[in-house]
Amino acid sequence: MLGAMRRVATSALAGALLAASLGASALGRPAGELDIGITQFPSTLNPDIDLMEAKSYVLAMTRRPITTYDAAWHLVCMLCTEPPTIENGRAVPFDLPDGKRGIRVTYTLQPEARWGDGVPVTTDDVVFSWELGREPRSGLANSELYRRIIAVEVKDAKTFTLVMNKLDFDYAAINDFEVLPAHLERAAAADPAQYRIHTLYDTDPTNPGLYFGPYRITEVAPGSHIVLERNPTWWGRKPAFRRIVVWTVENTAALEANLLAGGLDMVAGELGFSLDQALAFERRYGDRFAVLYKPSLGYEHVDLNLDNPILADQRVRQALLYAVDREAISKQLFAGRQPVADSFVSPLDWVYTADVPHYPYDPAKARALLEAAGWHIEGGAIRRNAAGKKLVLELATTAGDHIRELIEQVLQSEWRQVGVEIRLKNLPPRVLFGDTLVKRHFAMALFAWISAPENDPRSMLRSDEIPTAANGFNGENFPGLRDPRADQLIDAIEIELDRDRRARLWHRLEALYAEELPELPLYFRAEAYVLPKWLEGVVPTGHQYPTTLWIEDWRVVGRAPGS
């Protein structure tokens, strides 16, 4: 059922009250329940609307992607039976009329895959999902992938071929192709422009027919928690827990209090403690909990709205980065375990290069760039331009996130030292990752991108991926980067099958990013998983696909509380 709205703890007192409440509920917790704490509540439960880690974390227990990357960073089938390759004949390149190369890629769905209401998962669902994804009015997040597929050829109820309009280096990876239940969602999508409003994932989220994974959602209390119970139609290994409750505690101090009070069993690494909190927590409570650390492809950064007239000037963007002591942030807050980022590509990724423009801490250079851009200090601490306008910018991040709010204060202080005034405007995650970013209602926004190995940056950096009302707010190019050089490099990377040549293209794109700075890269993240010592099987991936995709492998060692 859809639960009542519940206010999330946002202060130490509220956190203590919530901890007492969850702790009390834990005393009567039924056997076979696992309670997980995360810091965000999903803005939607539709797998194709908005990109938000909280949603991915929860839905990974209720469905399976056709393909994904595992913890070893290998492409694997989950909803399909065998990854297609040119060598095994399931991927066949062909010539297009325009002289380019396309490819036909064939997949077979798991024979026993069924939705939670017993209806088989079939190629009808695949075709419906593709048609909806291609419809520009639907506003789905992964529309570029669906547009790239020019046809779906159905062989039978379980086997289909995707006809792609280009031969990509990652042609078999359709990780973001979200299969929707045609028998339920077709009516909701009758008017594609209204699909976001009518989708059953938000109007009837406990409908069992929406899910086909090890679990299905049985209760949603917006802003508070989501309850998942075993899905009787799941075809795979039986999961260990009868019931899982994912609690949202946006204030990370309250999250710790809930964990210690017994209201939570664990804190997710994907959306939990910052590294500094986890290190301090382990020092105090390492005898009670297991803490796992995993360097990841995620990177913390500040998105800059390039349509803002102040931030449109590259000199201002570069000055802002020169003015920040990122090495000090890494060393003092994270013991050096979250290294400074110079571009969006992590040193863990094989396409990484260090040969890009660097921005060491240099306040004098920042001041000189601001002066050259026409922002002067004349009798005041804050710079003004020739028209007398003050150099004032607004910075938003996820409210209640301890480390982000601390970093905001560091940025605010260091930028003020070079004459830039920063006004903080923090928002609940579901608001920031909803209309604020998608509709580009921001000047600067501090958050993280969680990436896959050798992740195609098209949706993040290409000009035609800027979300607008005209395109149904599709795309994740929130800064609004419009650079033909980036567009050309992205296009070239996608179709280059030779690894050495592709690496050189990647290096040029990384250098261009670091030169233009549509975002201010801060550091690459390490994730901290705080687990009970009786839980095993949680394997961090280090990329955007969460541990919960393998929830059926989680097991109890010995005896858990309440069992």
Characterise this structure.
The structure is a single chain. With 563 residues, this protein is of the alpha+beta class. Among the domains are: 134 residues, Dipeptide-binding Protein, Domain 1 (Dipeptide-binding Protein, domain 1, Alpha-Beta Complex), CATH 3.90.76.10; 231 residues, Dipeptide-binding Protein, Domain 3 (Dipeptide-binding Protein, domain 3, Roll). It has 17 helices and 18 strands. The strands form five sheets. The protein has a five-stranded mixed sheet with strand order 8-9-10-1-11, covered by helices on one side. Helix 1 runs parallel beside helix 8. The longest helix is centred in the last third of the chain and has 18 residues. It starts with 11 loop residues before the first helix and ends in a 7-residue tail after the last strand.
